[in-house]
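pinned: reference chain
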Amino acid sequence: VRSENYVSIANEESNIRLIAVDWDSNPVPDQTLNIEVIERRWSSTQEQDPNTGDTVWVSEVEMIPITDGVVTTGADGKAQFSFTPPNGGTFQISVSTRDEAGNEVRSSTTMWVADTEYVSWRQDNDSAVELVPDQTDYSVGDTAKILITSPYQGTSEALISIERGDVITVEHITMESNSYIYEFEIEPEYAPNIYV
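pinned: its structure tokens
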């Protein structure tokens, strides 16, 4: 199970690619796959640590069913499932089926969704800003999309640098909400890797 994009936008259709294979990695045609999409909505509050007196974030997650469905693989063992995330946040896409022996087989992936409205990301005690790339590898000419999950509500400022040994570029942006997708083109001088 794999999302076409690890990073998506609320109210835009997202496609999930599925493939069923046997133990020898051969495609399994006509396999029924059950899909469930669940939002992982975080609720974070600050509490006083009784041992240290420090104020710390305590987070709990609520699992909210969004949609489900059934698809059947084609002759190549592949299938696709589409859904539209209703809001920003973290979504878990779970797929289950049964093999020819009747054993349950499960797989899942996570997708991050940006929104212009406030998104309840999990808060950590370091006030870190998490960066989530839309894919793991890029080639020259690709457009990288990086989701910035800010712990701050409302409008905030960010200074984004692209680095490799030295600072290559710097850009100041204004984030209108606590989820922002930063896009940039992968240049030849970024090989073999960069840091954002």
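why pinned: The chain has a mean pLDDT of 91. The radius of gyration is 20 Å.
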